[in-house]
Amino acid sequence: MNALTLLTAVGAEATKEAVKTAKAATSLGQPNVTAIAFFFLFVSITLGITYWAARRTRSTREYFAAGGSLGSVQNGFALAGDYMSAASFLGIAGLVSMSGFDGLIYSVGWLVGWPVITFLIAEPLRNLGKFTFADVLAFRLRQRPVRIAAASGTLTVVTFYLIAQMVGAGGLIHLMFGLSYKVAVVIVGGVMLLYVLFGGMIATTWVQIIKAVLLLMGATLLAGLVLSRFGWNPLELFAAARDRYGSAVLAPGKLVASPLEAISLGIALMFGTAGLPHVLMRFYTVPDAATARRSVALATTIIGAFYLVTFILGFGASVLVGRETINSVAAGGNMAAPLLAEALGGTGFLGFISAVAFATILAVVAGLTLSGSAALSHDLWNHVVCKGQSPEHEQLRIAKIATVILALLAIGLGILFKDENVAFMVGLAFAIAASANFPALLLSMAWKKFTTRGAVASMVTGTVSAVVLILLSPPSGSTSCTTPPPSCR
């Protein structure tokens, strides 16, 4: 027996033992020195970037679109950083760990939306718009009704998306610092407010780039540690999950039981991607349509690689940590990835992964807040209230006031929705984006006979119907197994 075979056999034996005696104790919830150090390091660096960006941000174009000066590599990484959210890292890993194969529907649905953006959205959006996707809708339609409807859809999507990010961020800071959940949410909201209020899109872009690199490195390293326990063979990992939880863990139908619901969810995730206001806003940060197309191609590659990794993390957490432990730490499975990091690398590695996850959330929250403030100041204030006559300094002032309002809203909602699974909450935001924003945006660019009345009707109907159905649906803690964990574990 050679050394490699011996190590593999020993690792397999150790894994079997770990599976039998899933670790019930965790240091999560106690102050983690490593996590706190990485947290302050990240915040210090990004606040330095914010100070630098604030000195370069003087106009609305610089505040909302970084002056349109970003290259394809910069914007590609920033797009990936904007998109790889708490739902991607914490939520999908949690869903897969608690429900098995079905959790993959979220990662696949979110990924296949990017070809739609590449071939249908990116170039025309860059050519026709200025700061928001409402610019495209209003290009040949009546300004006032279209912008009101578009801003309403944008703010609804941003609100639901912010809930998910703040829940994930609050949980992380709570566990890293040992602070109360409410205080943790306030801290996250305050730091995010500094980035957006003073640095605008320039600061937000660099925060997203740093976060994308850190997240891809951290998640890949964690997945590598998982596979090393199973002889670098994913099939062995899946077999261990089957042995522990039964063959149903590798089959669809546990999280989404109805084929119609699966199709509906897939469509919402795919087309919702192409209707997310904070993603669409990034296409105005590049100088031309060709650069926008190249940045989407790079972002798709990064995001695709990352989603493959999260699937390994989810199954690894279910086998090496255990569903009971995961659910006992945080309802909804949101802490599966940090718990896995602790099981494999101790409290030091847990601290690093937790800090990376925090960086992930903070970057996305900053992008969401910026898109919401653009809708309020550029679409509603400038074009609806002031009929396009508002001076730049006034638009900037209104944008910063809107940023403060959105930050306070995010903090309040983050506290209110404490125990929701973050992937599930983001799924609701995607449903609204797919129902309201995407159809109007696509038809305005592709159909010459599209009218103002049709645009407003599509956005209002999509937004209202999606929100009403969400409010009337069973909560995620119900007994129906068409909803996410913890109910369907």
Structure characterization notes:
The protein has helices at about 5-20, 35-55, 60-65, 70-85, 85-100, 105-130, 135, 145-175, 180-230, 235-245, 260-275, 275-280, 290-320, 325-330, 335-385, 390-415, 420-445, 450-470. The protein contains 18 helices and no strands. Helix 9 crosses helix 16. It is mainly α and about 500 residues long. The chain is about 75% helix and about 0% strand. The chain is globular.
List the helices and strands and how they pair.
Layout: H1 3-20, H2 33-54, H3 60-65, H4 72-83, H5 86-99, H6 104-128, H7 134-137, H8 143-177, H9 181-228, H10 234-245, H11 259-273, H12 277-280, H13 289-320, H14 323-329, H15 336-385, H16 392-416, H17 422-446, H18 452-472
Task: List the defining traits of the structure above.
disordered C terminus; mainly alpha; Sodium/glucose cotransporter; globular; 18 helices; single chain; 77% helix; 489 residues
Described by strand count, sense and barrel closure, the largest sheet is:
none
Poorly predicted tracts of residues: 1-24, 477-489
CATH class: Mainly Alpha
Specify the CATH architecture. Answer: Up-down Bundle
List SSEs in N-to-C order.
Answer: HHHHHHHHHHHHHHHHHH
Beta-strand percent range: under 5%
Mean pLDDT score: 83
Rounded to the nearest angstrom, the distance between the terminal CA atoms is 41 Å
**What is the CATH superfamily label?**
Sodium/glucose cotransporter
